[in-house]
Design a protein that fits this description.
This protein is α+β, with helices and mostly antiparallel strands. It is built from 25 helices and 49 strands. Strands 3, 35, 36, 37, 38, 39 and 40 form a 7-stranded antiparallel beta sheet that branches. Strands 19-29-28-27-21-22 form a 6-stranded antiparallel beta sheet, with no helix packed on it. The N terminus is likely disordered.
Length: 1057
């Protein structure tokens, strides 16, 4: 059965309906690995494998950097006004109708689904986070492959699934995965006098700090600088979420766990902008709608269900700044001593934002829960559950009931962050916020609250957010089983911590001239838990023998209830640059709180990598300034977030030995890139880690990070898989990975991976001036839909505000179009049919130029795509994106990325063709150009023909074979006829129909044969002519051998768009 998770419309419904049949969590069964037998690539395949490092990335039929095969086109209520309340009820009914339709076993198509899923955000944007996207709550795989379409029934009957599985071991189960020196009696020096004056000023400053009444607005307005979507998210369920490029990912593509650099965090200010606040997710971000989400509160057998409007409008809200930190902040320092069970967090998994919402106690009281649960000596707890679905079951936790009901603890049901609706990554539409507590207790996407007489017993409450004694080194041990349930190991209040943010990691300061005598300001931040004030911050330049007193600064109105400090502080101390450069033992920071507790000097390792708050130390290095040749000092922090290795801390010998074992031997079978790329789907999933090939198919159903984390790397020969796996996995995960091993990549493929990694790093540093971005998805608005034929539409899109140009690098380049589905982004490449010319080109407009709308440069900040709609039939659901575009309401947005394509027409017979990664782009000149096109593959050829037609002095000759099924399938027929007619022989087009419907069809019939190619196209002619291909796989695969036999050579005079 398949249904939508948000069909849960009844107020007292306890469960959300699953998208697909439920899969048991990993802790319910042994984690078994099954590997399909594969003999490896043959000796001939290995011998014949191309030298990938010497070939362009657009080799016909192979995946390029966008994952597309070059030359291949895509295959065939009471708190609402009455009107809005009516809209919501109608939306519920439509969804219920669709659910009933599916439950009855009737197949539905994309048009059915999009028409039954109401989009509220265009008409009601007020309760949405910035950058909100519409998501179609289904998957392409379900619509096309899982439903009982006749075409699927026939396919299953004709090709019954057969495979031989070889078990690797019996499967193993780890327990659910697993300062001052004493004052000298001397007269004060100038430095001491300066310090004394600073202390007097600070005392006055602190005495004048003001209380927060919970009604002050947030002054931080720079919360979202970009609403583009990172390409790393496109094939995950988070494909609809805009995320800041300044966030450094800690656990690969998915789930999202990220932090900024410490310097970026400091620059953000005392109130952290939403977009750079650290993110900690255990799985996919749930897609919750304000109108349909309810918060259920259970007590004494009764359930009260609150809509978001009720929660917003019925209760008094308070708005207070709160500093929140991840329990794993600074974990990477521990991981370099000995691997823990967590990710490589550096020191910026912390932030301070305004959180606004009703007090939890007010909501509980209104739900009928008494302020006190009687004179019973039994302790009670408030339990919380989120609406997300991480791999180990629901994310739940609990806190003491008395703590929750104490109004001076300010426990909130937060609905706003920095005066904006919560970003989805931070719990939209409602989350728990417990000031002074660790982030792991502040449940996001809150859906359920209940009272119990015992602590929560869910996986994440027991097996996460625990600070274990150092002697516990495995979750398997008997001590671990007891201590993970022992109350002394649970983390609730944050511990105090301090961090140096400036000098920044890698910062270089010249010491030439008199600069060594100049002052330098060391800066950073510090925070504490439980509302305890940070009273002193101290900095040492000599290894802790002597300490300098730092000046502190709080956010405005930091005090609550007379003595509660929920915020962090910024601090600074001014020193001579010479003294800073000479701090050979390191520059250290520590802080003290109101109880005179002080940070410990040394690191205390623990299995989960929690609560590291040792002295934070950065180290200077004397170097030669590359700019002027003078001495300079460069600073290194202990670590950098994620997989970066620029910190001064290096892996211990124990860690190095463990890594050597993890990357041990592999079977001698070798696999070519071509073979690996075949295994790129859920039912057949290979990954490459450290140049070894693994069959991860059987891991998908129990992988703690979910399927998308693995499928994002399926069938890909790139370095990212290795980097992501190394950054987050422990010894147990490496052991399970080795059970999946098949063999290793060939040397040519290994060279390709190395070379491509360098090219990707360089490409990400290149910026775009137009709307398009190479590595991020940008929203564009559909403003017009024009019917050209019964099944072909021209779609006009408006560019984002502030963008004057689409940003295509030249003619023949295409863009990626993305539509948000529940499991991933639906992506298709299209070549715009307007504009044809780059923005910098001024095209001539002679009388003979075909005056079609598609042949004008971009002047109105719009662009066109011409797309054929493959409508559903009784036997199949039809095309995915073409039907969604046809039904999409005007004003809705879709994503674009690019420009893509390695071939650009420069005019007058010159083509720019990208070569192998990091190699210079080659320019080829051809007097005669042949095109073999098919179906929607016509569009890059159309752009080339239009450019030549628009340029009278461009004498390039063009011959085209355009293959289609029937006459109605010929795209842009009128424009093509006009090109042929008005260019007077410069462009000649031959249409070939395999199933012509019309008896009066005078064109070619049948298929594209070698004879037809030689009859209608230009011969190779010693490099003066070239052929370009774009069409469905059947067409391209059939003509390639014939063109090669004729004398065309790939990457020389034969290319795939």
């Amino acid at each position: 059965m398949w249904c939508f998770p948000m069909f849960n419309c009844e107020k007292n419904t306890k469960k959300a309906l699953p998208l697909r049949p439920s899969v048991r969590m990993p802790h319910h069964f042994p984690w078994e690995v099954k590997v399909r037998h594969h003999p490896g690539s043959t000796k001939k395949e290995i011998h014949d494998e191309p030298e990938w490092t010497k070939r362009s990335s657009h080799s016909i039929g192979f995946k390029n950097q966008e994952g597309r095969r070059a030359g291949i086109s895509h295959p065939d209520h009471e708190d609402l006004d009455p009107e809005h309340a009516k809209e919501i009820e109608e939306a519920r009914q439509k969804r219920a109708e669709l659910k009933n339709h599916i439950d009855a076993g009737d197949p539905v198509n994309f048009r059915d689904v999009i028409e039954k899923q109401t989009s509220f955000h265009i008409r009601h944007p007020e309760n949405r986070s910035l950058g909100w996207r519409y998501v179609l709550e289904t998957t392409e795989d379900f619509i096309k492959n899982q439903e009982k379409w006749p075409i699927n029934t026939r396919r299953r009957e004709e090709s019954p699934h057969q495979e031989v599985l070889v078990e690797s071991g019996q499967g193993q189960k780890e327990e659910t995965w697993r300062r001052h020196e004493e004052d000298k009696k001397e007269s004060l020096s100038p430095q001491e006098r300066s310090l004394l004056e600073a202390l007097e000023k600070e005392a006055t400053y602190i005495s004048h700090l003001q209380q927060s009444d919970g009604k002050k607005p947030c002054l931080q307005k720079n919360n979202r600088s970009s609403i583009s979507i990172d390409e790393q998210d496109q094939f995950t369920p988070d494909n609809w979420l805009p995320r800041c490029p300044d966030l450094i990912r800690l656990t690969g593509n998915h789930p999202m766990n990220a932090e900024p650099s410490v310097h970026c965090l400091l620059q953000g200010g005392l109130i952290t902008p939403n977009e750079i606040h650290y993110v900690r997710n255990h799985g996919a971000v749930p897609r919750l709608l304000w109108e349909l989400h309810h918060l259920e509160i259970e007590y004494d057998g009764q359930t009260v269900s609150l809509t978001m409007d009720a929660l917003k409008n019925r209760f008094h809200m308070i708005n207070i700044p709160v500093a929140m930190a991840c329990t794993g902040n600074r974990r990477k320092e521990l991981n370099l001593l000995r691997k823990t069970k967590g990710a490589n967090n550096a020191a910026a998994s912390v932030g301070c934002a305004y959180w606004k919402g009703p007090l939890l106690r007010d909501v509980l009281l209104a739900a009928g829960i008494p302020e006190s649960l009687g004179a019973s000596s039994k302790k009670h707890y408030v339990n919380f559950a989120g609406a997300d679905s991480p791999s180990e079951g629901p994310y739940e936790t609990s806190i003491p009931f008395e703590y929750a009901m104490d109004p001076t603890n300010d426990v909130l049901l937060a609905m706003y962050m920095n005066d904006l609706p919560l970003p989805p990554d931070h719990g939209y539409p409602v989350r728990l916020m417990i000031p002074g507590y660790i982030g792991g207790r502040c449940v996001k996407w809150l859906k359920r609250i209940w009272i119990s007489d015992h602590e929560n017993e869910s996986f994440y409450h027991i097996w996460d957010n625990r600070a274990m004694p150092p002697f516990v080194v495995s979750k398997d041990s008997e001590f671990a089983k007891v201590l993970f349930r022992h109350p002394s190991t649970a983390c609730y209040e944050q511990n105090m911590n301090s961090v140096i943010a400036k000098p920044a990691q890698g910062e270089v300061i010249s010491l030439g001239g008199d600069k060594a005598k100049e002052k330098y300001r060391i800066e950073g931040y510090a925070y504490n838990g439980g509302g305890h004030e940070i009273q002193h911050v101290e900095v040492s330049l000599d290894g802790g023998d002597n300490w300098l007193f730092a000046t502190t600064r709080f956010p405005e109105f930091p005090i609550r209830h007379g003595n509660k400090f929920w915020t962090w502080i910024f601090w600074h101390v001014d020193v001579n640059l010479a003294g800073l450069a000479g701090a050979g033992k390191g520059i250290m920071v520590r802080c003290l709180d109101s109880a005179k507790n002080i940070q410990p000097q040394g690191i205390r390792w623990n299995l989960m990598g929690m609560m590291n708050n040792s002295w934070y130390t950065i180290k200077p290095e004397i170097i030669t300034d590359s700019k002027d040749g003078n001495p300079a000092v460069m600073f290194r922090h202990p670590t950098e977030a994620g997989s970066a290795t620029g910190g001064w801390m290096q892996p211990s010998e124990q860690v190095r030995v463990a890594e050597a074992k993890q990357t041990g031997g592999a079977p001698q079978k070798e696999f070519t890139r071509e073979e690996i790329e075949k295994h790129d789907k859920e039912g057949d999933c290979w990954i490459v880690v450290d140049y070894k090939v693994y069959d991860a198919t059987s891991v998908l159903n129990w992988h703690p990070g979910g399927k998308p984390a693995i499928l994002a790397h399926a069938g890909k020969c790139h370095q990212e898989t290795t980097d992501h796996f190394r950054s987050i996995h422990d010894d147990f995960a490496w052991k399970k990975l080795h059970e999946c091993i098949l063999g290793k990549v060939t040397q040519k493929t290994a060279d390709f991976i190395k070379q491509n990694a360098n090219a990707v790093a360089k490409a990400k540093s290149d910026a775009s001036s137009g709307a398009l971005e190479q590595h991020r998805w940008v929203p564009v608005k559909l403003i017009k839909r024009t019917q050209l034929t019964p099944d072909t539409r021209r779609y006009t899109f408006a560019l984002p505000d502030g963008k004057q140009d689409l940003g295509l690098g030249g003619t023949c380049q295409h863009i990626q179009l993305g539509f948000h589905l529940q499991d991933k982004m639906l992506v298709r490449p299209y070549t715009p049919t307007r504009p044809i010319l780059p923005a910098t080109t001024t095209p001539p407009t002679p009388p003979s130029t075909p005056k079609t709308a598609s042949c004008t440069p971009n002047k109105d900040r719009t662009f066109d795509l011409t797309i054929k709609t493959y409508f559903p039939t009784p036997s199949s659901p039809g095309g995915a994106l073409s039907n969604l575009l046809d039904c999409m309401p005007l004003g809705e947005e879709i994503e674009i990325r690019g420009p893509a394509g390695d071939i650009t027409y420069l005019g007058h017979g010159s083509f720019s063709v990208s070569g192998p990664p990091l190699s210079p782009t080659a320019t080829h000149h051809f007097n005669r150009v042949s095109l073999v096109l098919g179906g929607s593959g016509i569009t890059p050829g159309y752009a080339l023909m239009a450019r030549i037609a628009m340029t009278p002095d461009d004498m390039t000759q063009v011959r085209v074979i355009d293959a289609n099924r029937s006459q109605k399938d010929i795209l842009l027929r009128d424009e093509l006829d006009k090109f042929e007619r008005e260019t007077k022989g410069k462009i000649e087009i031959t249409h070939v129909l395999s199933q012509p419907d019309e008896k009066n069809w005078e064109g070619e019939r049948g298929y594209v044969t070698p004879g037809l190619l030689r009859q209608k196209l230009f011969p190779p002619d010693n490099g003066k002519s070239a052929v370009f291909l774009c069409g469905p796989p059947g067409l391209v695969n059939s003509v390639l051998p014939a063109l090669k036999d004729w004398g065309y050579v790939e990457d020389k005079n034969m290319f795939g768009f």
